[in-house]
Write the C-alpha cells for this entry.
Amino acid sequence: PSRPQALAPDELSARGMTAATSPKEPEEVVIEEIVDGEARGDSPSSDLSALHASKAKAKDLSYYYAQPDAAKVLPADAVIRQEDPLLRADGLGPKKLELSTEVDMENVRWLDTFAFSDDGAVVKLYADLPECIKGASVECSFDRFSVLFLARLPASGRTYGIKIKERDGWILEQERIDGFAHEIIPEKCKHRVSSNGERVTFTLAKLDDKEKWDELRKKHIRTTIPRS
C-alpha cells in the first residue's frame, strides 16, 4: 500500500482539516517585587482597600460600617466599663435612681397650706408653690397615712417640701396623731406638677372608697373632746 501524502496547509483548509501543531512552549513567569503593604491595598497613594471600597459603595449598609476605627482616639473623660452591664440586671424593670446629692432636710422650705376635695374613690390634694419649679429634681413618696414631696431647684439650690405624716409610736387608731384623716393605698397614689410649675396636685387613692373625707388630717383626740 502506498503511504499517505502530506497535504499543503491550503489544501487542509479547503477540506476543513487542520494540521497538528507542536506543543506550546511554557510561558515565562514574571515575579514582581512589591513594597510591603501594597498587597493589602493599604498603599498611601491608594484608597481602594476593601474597607474603603465597601464603605464607598454600600455606605452605611457596608459590612465594615460598624467596625471600630483602630485609629480613633477616645476623649479624655471617656469611661470604659470594667464589668458586664448586665451584671446588675434582675429582670424586674427600671429602678428609680437616687439623687446624687442628698437633701439637707433642715434647709427645706416646708409648705403647710393646702386645699383638698373628696372625689369619690380618691381625694385630690392641692398645694401652691411660691415659685416655678420647672426643671427641679422632684421626689415623692406615699405611705398609709402620709406623703413626702421634695422639689430641689438646680440653679438656686432651694428646696421646697410638703410633708403630712403621723407621729411615730402609735399602735391603735385612736392613739394616732396627725397624718391623713383616713388610710390610703400608697401604690395607687400619684402626683403631678402643673404646666406652669407653680402647683402640685396629689391624687390619694382611698383604702375605703365609700369613706367620706370631711377633714384632710387626723386630729388629736383631745382637741375633739368638748370642754365642760
Summary: The chain is about 5% helix and 20% strand. The helical segments are 9-14, 50-58.
